[in-house]
Amino acid sequence: MTDHKKSQIQTIVIIAVIAAVCIIFNTAVEGKFFAAGNIKTLIAHAIIPCFMAWALAFVFACDFTDMSIGAIIVLAANLSGFLGETKLGYFGVVIGAVGLSTVLMVFNFFLFSKSKIPSWVASIGMVMVYEAIGIFYSNHQMNNGKTISQLSEGMRGLAKAPAIYIVFAIGLLAAYVIYNRTTLGFAVRSLGSGHNISEAMGIDIFKTILLAGVVCGIFVGCSAFLNESYSARISVKTGLTSMTMVFQPIASLMLAQVLKAKINLIFGIPICALFVYGIFNMLTIAGVPSGTLQEAVLGLIVIVFAILAQRKQKKVVK
User: Fold this and answer.
1) 274, 43 in Cβ contact below 8 A?
2) Statement: residue 194 has pLDDT above 80
3) Other CB atoms closer than 10 Å to residue 208's CB: what's the count?
4) Residue 309, number of CB atoms within 10 A of its CB
5) Helix (H, G, I), strand (E, B) or coil at 181
6) Other CB atoms within 10 A of residue 224 CB
7) Could you tell me which residues come within 8 angstroms of residue 204 by beta carbon, excluding any fewer than 6 positions away?
8) Could you read off the pLDDT of 70-125 as tens digits, one per residue?
9) I need a labelling partner for 17 at 20 to 30 A (CA). Which of 115, 132, 208, 313 fits?
């Protein structure tokens, strides 16, 4: 039997097992899992972090680790809500989130590139800075008898059908083309082999890193305005808790990396996000508390997927 046929059989078996588990679980919970309302919620919850996972794909390809993305989303979402409730309307919702996210991601990449600090250390420092800015903003609003920015019901259409599916389709197409079909995508992926090798290939490393920061910022901004549109308001985070927003997208990305020999990484991310969020949806329906126990499951998922994604690596992985 050829390796290709073995791979096809393995894929079919995996799909069959997942389908069987879903059917059995749906029967056990009296049809709640496959209920139309639950499926819509599950898809929405899977779409929003896809943009964060696509951004992380570029971050990791640059050989960086950025844990501040969650804190950036909090700030960008609040600016999105503020501008959305002004005369700017939906334009403000989008441009506020995308604009601020792009500026902060480019700054992060500049810092990672020019400083001698490991990116994961620098990014944790930036988490503290961005969370502090969020707290300052929240306290300022409270001292003036106001609350943090909140979108009214009429301005939350981007997180509803059909707009959310249109935004997702545009994001998927853009991520695929940029990552796989452009000079920038090739240059970014080459950075993962080592900056010295990329420089020997004639790649302008600093320019590539800054452009990758712009791309990441756009995807992070999309996640921010979708989060704001879905939830109406995003509360500020403290004590590095914004980092938890990154864990589920990382799990989706890690699983997509495991499957990238069979499915293109960019297409694999939404499939894996649906799988990851399906697990948490099952836990919620089953009555598992959304705090510690679900976080423990998430931690195990991240560890397992990371091990599987790096099992063929022969060098030290950050």
Assistant:
1) yes
2) no
3) 22
4) 19
5) helix
6) 32
7) 187
8) 999 999 999 999 999 887 899 999 999 999 999 999 999 999 999 888 999 999 99
9) 313
